[in-house]
Write a structure and sequence with these properties.
- Helix content is 7%, strand content 38%.
- The protein has one helix and 18 strands.
- By secondary structure, the chain is mainly β.
- The protein folds into two domains: 23-188, Sandwich (Jelly Rolls); 197-277, Sandwich (Gamma-B Crystallin, domain 1), CATH 2.60.20.
- The strands form four sheets. Strands 1, 2, 3, 4, 6, 8 and 9 form a seven-stranded antiparallel β-sheet that branches.
- It starts with a helix and ends in a 6-residue tail after the last strand.
């Protein structure tokens, strides 16, 4: 009987772990904001009245770029500030997408920071809240970092959940945020690495695929030479497709997804792919 109980518990644990492992968190992105420095009288540092001035950029706004990281791989900004104390605001935005697969049960969902000032609010966009929602109990108030103790599970849905952090500085001399962490049922979900681009065998991102790395991706390509028909390109990356080996022959430059290379007269001829960071992105 004890053996049966142990086996049942082990099976349950395996299923739970499998579901947990399937939850994904995309790489964090940063946006410097479209509103610039905003005049606003804050009664205290980090006051919630500041969020009325926030203008959250659209998910596909060209100003988004890969968030800076420290040596540990955590999101990290540490900047000098020259704002007029509690008279001006400087917003910075961070976004990620948390995907929760069907039939996955979540008991708790928490977002926290290792360090942040002066204020930060967590917004959640999904199928139930297309215009975004938040819980002000999870707002970061200057000097009171209890954000991680607030459970946001009730606002999370199956499928994609866009998480946006609106962080603001309202006083010199520093502007900081580091170590954004998402925990499900008490366990931190690791952030997926950035995949600059992906090559697909068929149109509309179907068939065999190959994740591309920065630099020249030489043949023979894993997806197959002269068979690629569609390409996904992450924000702030530039992909150059070459007809022949060693980066020769005709070329096609892409800065966004292309679901059908037939439209560019470049179907089934790709042999080399150069992947580079876009120097003009995110500014």
């Amino acid at each position: 009987m004890n053996t049966l109980k142990s086996l049942t518990a082990l099976i349950s644990l395996c299923f739970a772990a499998t579901s947990f492992a399937e939850i994904s968190v995309s790489a964090w992105q940063i946006h410097e904001g479209n509103e610039g420095i905003v005049d606003h009288a804050n009664p205290v540092n980090g006051d919630r009245s500041a969020y009325a001035k926030a203008q959250i950029p659209a998910q596909n706004d060209p100003g988004w770029s890969e968030a800076p990281k420290n040596s540990a791989g955590d999101v990290f900004i540490n900047r000098r500030s020259s704002l007029k104390c509690r008279q001006q605001l400087d917003f910075t935005y961070f976004q990620t997408t948390v995907n929760v697969p069907a039939n996955t049960t979540i008991h708790t969902f928490n977002v926290s920071y290792d360090k942040a000032d002066d204020g930060a609010r967590i917004y959640i966009f999904n199928s139930a809240n297309p215009n975004g929602t938040f819980d002000e109990r999870a707002d970061l108030l200057f000097g009171k970092n209890t954000v991680g103790s607030v459970d946001l599970k009730s606002k999370i849905v199956t499928g994609d959940n866009r998480i946006v952090i609106a962080q603001f500085d309202d006083c010199a001399v520093g502007n900081n945020l580091s170590g954004i962490r998402i925990k499900v049922d008490g366990q931190e979900i690791p952030v997926e690495p950035v995949v600059p681009a992906t090559l697909f065998e068929h149109v509309n991102y179907i068939g065999k695929s190959q994740a591309l790395v920065e630099g020249m991706n030489k043949g023979p390509l894993a997806v197959g030479n002269d068979v690629a028909s569609s390409v996904k390109v992450s924000q702030c990356w530039v992909v150059t497709l070459y007809e022949h080996a060693r980066g020769t022959g005709r070329e096609l430059v892409l800065r966004a997804d292309d679901p059908d290379l037939r439209d560019d007269n470049f179907n089934d001829i790709v042999s080399n792919v150069l992947v580079e960071r876009d120097p003009n992105c995110g500014g």
